[in-house]
Amino acid sequence: MHTGEEYHQIILASQRDRAVRDRFQQLVLDLLPAGAEVLDFGAGTGIDAKTYAAQGHPTFVYEPAAAMSEYLAQYCHGEIAGKTIVAVASPLACKVQAVTANFAVLNHFADHASLFEELSRVVRQGGFVLASMLNPYYLGDARYGWWRANLLNLVRHGRYAIASESGIHRFAPRVVVRAAAPYFRLEQLLPHGFGWVTQLYMFLLFRRT
């Protein structure tokens, strides 16, 4: 288990992770109206939140892991002092135009139905949820026994779990879409085409109905 600072340095040092983060952040910024509030759900060490705040978006951060939250307080000290970033103990403590969940935050949930019901009380009508989730069809994982052992579960049920300390679950997009209804509808799903087997992360954009 990494400390917040160790995680922060590792993820910033990864060229692949930086590329994923850049794409995710740009999509968020393209979708947000000027000055709109955003909740960074599972904010980690505050890397995304710092970018949103710098672009003029009041940013709430929800991070339940103590190690991450403590380092976030250091990394975003100036923004927190200036109240452009505000830490919340519960997502329900804010009302925003958008909720973002980057780098597999939603893969830590076994079921998303209650989560989306809660987020429906956070996101304003017409707002959105953007999540990057682990792509269950990524062929780079085929070298692992757990991927091959769960392929039938993925085909039959659209989901499976891996026994690990982190409690990671994999989901086919249709399962998440079903859990998001009736509060949110899927507006965009990335990647397309060949990217389905070559990219580790998929982006799901949900619009509040």
Description:
With 209 residues, the chain is of the alpha/beta class. It has one domain: Rossmann fold (3-Layer(aba) Sandwich), CATH 3.40.50. The protein has helices at 4-13, 15-31, 47-54, 66-75, 77-81, 113-119, 145-149, 151-157, 173-180, 195-198, and strands spanning 38-41, 59-62, 85-87, 96-101, 123-134, 159-161, 169-171, 184-190, 201-208. The protein is globular. The chain is 39% helix and 24% strand. The protein is built from 10 helices and 9 strands. The protein starts with a helix and ends with a strand. This is Methyltransferase domain-containing protein.
In short:
With 209 residues, the chain is an alpha/beta fold. It is built from ten helices and nine strands.
Order of helices and strands: HHEHEHHEEHEHHEEHEHE
- N/C terminus separation: 39 Å
Oligomerization: single chain
Spatial shape: globular
Q: Class, according to the CATH hierarchy?
A: Alpha Beta
CATH architecture: 3-Layer(aba) Sandwich
| Main sheet strand line-up | 3-2-1-4-5-9-8
Helix/strand class: alpha/beta
Most strands sheet: 7 strands, mixed
The count of β-strands is 9
Query: CATH homologous superfamily - what is it?
Result: Vaccinia Virus protein VP39
Quote the CATH topology. Rossmann fold
Helix content: 25-40%
Which residues sit in consecutive blocks of at least 5 with pLDDT less than 50?
A: none
Rg on CA atoms, Å = 17 Å
Mean pLDDT: 96
Number of spatially distinct domains: 1
How much of the sequence is in beta strands? 15-25%
How many helices does DSSP assign? 10
